[in-house]
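Quick one, T. Sequence first:
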Amino acid sequence: MDERGPEAPGGEALRSAAENLFQELQEHFQALTAALNLRMEEMGSRIEDLQKNVNDLMLQAGIENTVTEQTVRPSLGNQT
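Structure tokens:
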């Protein structure tokens, strides 16, 4: 015998509705996750393009070495 007691009227219909709702929520969550991942990949690509453009502009302006030295020197200073 089931320890939960007798099934309430409409209990199976309620359980089925809850399972359907859960399935729909899971599908929506998966679609949202896929959309967010795609947006993050697009944003990463845009950031890489922006970094390349900034580096190109810095090179044209003749200040690439200054920025490179600022980012490289502290780590070189720590090694010696």
